Amino acid sequence: MRGLLSFLGDAWALARPYWNSEEKWKARGLLAVIILLNLALVGMNVLLTYWQASFYDALQEKDFTAFSQLLLWGHRREDGSFMPGFSIVAALFIVVAVYQLYLNQALQIRWRRWLVGHMLHDWLDRHAYYRMGLTEGGADNPDQRIADDTRLYVSSTLNLGLGLMSAVVTLISFIFVLWGLSGPMSVFGINIPGYLVWVALIYSVLGTWLAHLIGRKLIRLNFNQQRVEADFRFSLVRVRENMEGIALHGGEPQEEAGLRERFAAVMQNWWAIMTATKQLTFFTAGFGQVAVIFPFIVAAPAYFAGQVALGALVQTTRAFGEVQGAMSWAVTAYDDLAAWRATVERLTGFHFAMVAARAAAEEGPRVAPGAEDALSAERLRLALPNGRVLTEDASLRVAPGEAVLITGASGSGKSTLFRALAGIWPFGSGDIQQPRGEVLFLPQRPYIPLGTLKRAVCYPHDPAAHSNAEVAAALEKAGLDALVPRLEEVDAWDRRLSGGEQQRLAVARALLVKPRWLFLDEATASLDPAAERTLYTTLRRELPQAAILSIAHRPAVAEFHDRVLRLADGKLAPVQPQESLA
Ligand SMILES: Nc1ncnc2c1ncn2[C@@H]1O[C@H](COP(=O)(O)OP(=O)(O)OP(=O)(O)O)[C@@H](O)[C@H]1O
């Protein structure tokens, strides 16, 4: 019970922000209309049971006029009351049902847009996504949670919520109908009024309880299914993204084995879901079948005793069926409820992982952005997620326009030092003063976004911020003249360009963006030494005001820098350029 209450608390915590957001009046208004339409549907259902009673009575009495009037416009009964015809009620029913669904979907997409927008922000804000990827504590498969789980959550919440509401309203309405139709019954000499109502209630409560006992393992299984499906899809995406590496290694058998293994996890969990669903369906289908004849069995004695007419019998069984159906809502919706609960738990887990990752932005070295016109790091202690220390008490100060080369053995922590200077490394301590003005980091494998070549060069600027002529000039200076005519072409540029070309593209980016602070982390390492020299010469000529911090292994790069620092034994120490061999 505690588990259920805390789960409902989580579900509400997930939903509440939207219903109190800037969109709240539109959302609430739309929901109110949908609820009204839903209630109208229930009302028409009630009306139809009375219509049915009149219709069967007309049949029994072979009253053709009443029969045809009841099918068309309507019939005035002997007591003066008017019963609308089936065609009218059915036409109205169709219109209401269509708009109920249409507006429901409109509300779903609005809610989802809001939710996805907020999740994207929380995920990307303060590098939360990066930190979540660094530690195992991050939620698995964020892409699936943002793309799929939000869709499932929104549609299930609305549909289950409206389904529950309809069930409650149907229950209340038909309890009155059934109560009116059902006479008292004497059990051991005690008169029980509205006995059909009690029979329906007992039948349904028993059914719901049994469905819960049989189906509850589906919650965990559904949760797992989402995870294993996402893992499988992710491994397929990895193959697609690393096609060349895999093909060159001839790694297909390994990949196939890995993919099969992941799919086996999908299968295994799916079999467990099938077994659990089979058990639940045996029960729910049996429950549903019995429910068809059960009301006849309980109402038949009165009919055969001549106490009720055929119309009243039909109306009674229908009312019984509706009460029992509404009471058993949880039995029929158990599968959906289990899936919904799994989705809510996945989204809640993701939310808390994001909150923790954003809070962790305060952890690690203290970063003061743009505090002064220089870059400095003091008493920098950088560690790995597992606690291993990379630098102990490293210090650094770089003035505007200065060019500094950082060398050190592979794995000594040079890239991690850059990550810390960028303010994204959350493990360690010390003080970092970030400089004023635009900063650009160029890693060894540049990030190339999807879209046009122009977009790839301008990143992270908006492509509209630069003219084609500017971008073309930058590409030419970086030695990519051949690409100039393809600026507007959309392609998978990260796969189309060679490693060296990608690095040239990154240099073109620097020439275009003209940062005041440029960080090059082995950003020219894929080029031949002559090309590397040319690019460094171009960078120093074109960006004379820029401070440049480079990480490089080739000693020749030192001549383009004012001084060289070497990272060794956890400390940064100045060395002579000729000593800079890594
Ligand atoms: N996210 C991470 N989780 C665990 N270990 C990490 C992580 N990132 C880096 N490391 C480890 O930290 C150490 C330093 O990595 P870093 O990339 O800073 O080295 P580097 O000096 O730049 O090396 P190279 O010259 O080879 O590029 C390496 O041993 C690396 O395996």
From TrEMBL:
<dbReference type="GO" id="GO:0140359">
    <property type="term" value="F:ABC-type transporter activity"/>
</dbReference>
<dbReference type="InterPro" id="IPR050835">
    <property type="entry name" value="ABC_transporter_sub-D"/>
</dbReference>
<keyword id="KW-0813">Transport</keyword>
<protein>
    <submittedName>
        <fullName>ABC transporter ATP-binding protein/permease</fullName>
    </submittedName>
</protein>
<dbReference type="Pfam" id="PF06472">
    <property type="entry name" value="ABC_membrane_2"/>
</dbReference>
<feature type="transmembrane region" description="Helical">
    <location>
        <begin position="192"/>
        <end position="214"/>
    </location>
</feature>
<dbReference type="InterPro" id="IPR003593">
    <property type="entry name" value="AAA+_ATPase"/>
</dbReference>
<keyword id="KW-0472">Membrane</keyword>
<keyword id="KW-0547">Nucleotide-binding</keyword>
<dbReference type="GO" id="GO:0005886">
    <property type="term" value="C:plasma membrane"/>
</dbReference>
<dbReference type="InterPro" id="IPR017871">
    <property type="entry name" value="ABC_transporter-like_CS"/>
</dbReference>
<feature type="domain" description="ABC transmembrane type-1">
    <location>
        <begin position="32"/>
        <end position="339"/>
    </location>
</feature>
<feature type="transmembrane region" description="Helical">
    <location>
        <begin position="280"/>
        <end position="304"/>
    </location>
</feature>
<dbReference type="InterPro" id="IPR003439">
    <property type="entry name" value="ABC_transporter-like_ATP-bd"/>
</dbReference>
<dbReference type="GO" id="GO:0016887">
    <property type="term" value="F:ATP hydrolysis activity"/>
</dbReference>
<feature type="transmembrane region" description="Helical">
    <location>
        <begin position="30"/>
        <end position="51"/>
    </location>
</feature>
<feature type="transmembrane region" description="Helical">
    <location>
        <begin position="160"/>
        <end position="180"/>
    </location>
</feature>
<dbReference type="InterPro" id="IPR011527">
    <property type="entry name" value="ABC1_TM_dom"/>
</dbReference>
<keyword id="KW-0812">Transmembrane</keyword>
<dbReference type="GO" id="GO:0005524">
    <property type="term" value="F:ATP binding"/>
</dbReference>
<feature type="domain" description="ABC transporter">
    <location>
        <begin position="375"/>
        <end position="582"/>
    </location>
</feature>
<dbReference type="InterPro" id="IPR036640">
    <property type="entry name" value="ABC1_TM_sf"/>
</dbReference>
<dbReference type="InterPro" id="IPR027417">
    <property type="entry name" value="P-loop_NTPase"/>
</dbReference>
<keyword id="KW-0067">ATP-binding</keyword>
<feature type="transmembrane region" description="Helical">
    <location>
        <begin position="82"/>
        <end position="103"/>
    </location>
</feature>
<keyword id="KW-1133">Transmembrane helix</keyword>
<dbReference type="Pfam" id="PF00005">
    <property type="entry name" value="ABC_tran"/>
</dbReference>
